[in-house]
Amino acid sequence: MTIRNRLTWLFVGVVAFILLGVLTTAFLLQADYSRRDFRQRLRERAVVAAYIYLEKDELRSSAFQAFQKQFQRTLPEEIIQLYDARDEVRFVREDARLEVPPDVLARIRQGHEEYFEDGSREAVGIFYRDNQGQYVVVAGAENIRGEARLQYLATIMATIFVLSLLLIYGAGRLFAGRALAPIAALNDQMDSISAHDLHRRVAENLSGRERDELSRLAHTFNRLLDRLESSFDGQRAFVRNASHELRTPLAASIGEAQLALAREREPAAYRAALHALLTDLTQLNALLNHLLELAQAETPLPEHDTRIRVDELLAEACAVIDPAQRPRLHLHTGRLPAEPEQLELTGNRALLSRALVNLLENALKYSEPRPVAVDLEYEPGGVRLRIRDEGIGIAETDLPQVFQPFFRAGNARPVAGHGVGLPLAHKIIEQHGGELELTSQLGHGTTALVRLPTA
Questions:
Q1: Which of 1, 67, 125, 182 is a Cys-bridge partner for 108, taking CB atoms 3.0 to 4.6 Å apart?
Q2: Contact 245, 287 (CB under 8 A)
Q3: Strand 372-379 to strand 329-333: parallel, antiparallel, or no bridges (unpaired)?
Q4: Is 2 helix (H, G, I), strand (E, B) or coil?
Q5: β-pairing, 382-388 with 435-441?
Q6: What is the pLDDT of residues 79-138, one digit of tens each?
Q7: Distance (Å, whole) CA 189 – CA 259
Q8: Alpha-carbon span 114 to 39, nearest angstrom
Q9: CA separation (Å) from 198 to 195, 226, 230?
Q10: Cross-strand partners of 331
């Protein structure tokens, strides 16, 4: 069932329930009023009958005629009967007779006004004391007119209920269609966007109102498209750059092998060809290792990580650096906590070590032969590591793209590398809840700022 139909039937059901409750309440109130009115008329008939037949000798002629005239206006199927002190019927109007239960008759003699039913008739009994004695007057009749009015009212209400349901259904479908029209338009716009035109966006004001639920949905979908477009662009760049990086050592290796096999050569020439082939394969192996490390950085961290001292981790990363390059590292420590445990964080030691090694190697590689300053400082809730070099720097236009795998700035291409170190370090640090920020000035060096939360 479509949303429009569900909304329509829900609207019809709710309104029908409310309307049925209102009509039923009105009918019950009218039925109760009709019954109380008929009982009042019955009581009046009983009182008039008592005056006519028990007070006739005491009433003036004009008063008696008024009561007699009133008494002549009978109710449908009316029966009036009087009981004397011995419970014998003294007077019965009409041929039929009311059957008054003995317990009801006893309660009436006690002074109670009793209402009861005798078949289709409703009856009332009252106690009347006269100078001639004590009597019970009972009047009964059928509420034919009241029941006819109630049946007529029920027919009218049923007709109104059915017609109202039809009207409500039509109005519900109309309003549901109008309410869902922007969603249908949004769905059409979404359906027209494919992987080839992720630059397109859906309109955020289809409903004509800002900041409503539909506008928020469109805004959220546009943000999703932003992330998808960025991810697709990064994927395309990754495939393009990875293909280029993989093709270069493979083409060089194939070329060296073909050249070596083209004709007979001296052993020294074969050794030179094998050496060049080994160099290319070593470069290819390093590239494949970087790809494996990138894949590992994408997987979630294990639940039970080890506790790591940041100062020890930095010392381990410096120990991995080529001994010939270590003297260029100038390590400084700023404010450190009194308790060494405050420098501890939880995470994967191997991945964090790889991230720091990549940052240090990049700084050394692009600033040779100048020194690299490494500053470690404690801040509440974490540590801050700043790595500053005096190298070639990064252009402002290239800086936003340096965290894309295999991207290399234009001035960095003469330096050997694959463009994997920074993206890998960025992913590892983010995975551990930290931040990596790069600031650079072309020709004046680069600063990498790492913030890591401590345990």
A1: 125
A2: yes
A3: parallel
A4: coil
A5: unpaired
A6: 888 888 777 777 766 567 888 888 888 888 888 888 888 888 888 888 888 777 788 888
A7: 57
A8: 10
A9: 6, 8, 9
A10: 374
Q: What are 217-242's pLDDT values in tens digits?
A: 877 888 888 888 777 776 776 676 66
- Identity of the amino acid at 263: R
Please say whether the beta carbons of 80 and 92 come within 8 A. Answer: yes
Beta strand segments in 369-433, E: 372-379, 382-388
Select from 357, 352, 362 the least CA-distant residue to 433: 352
Let me know: does 83 contact 123? Beta carbons within 8 Å.
no
What is the value of pTM for the model shown?
A: 0.50
Tokens of 96: 């039929």
CA distance 365 to 416: 9
Confidence of residue 163 (pLDDT cuts 50, 70, 90): very high
Q: What is the CA radius of gyration of the chain?
A: 50
Distances (CA, A) of 224 to 185, 231, 294: 18, 10, 24
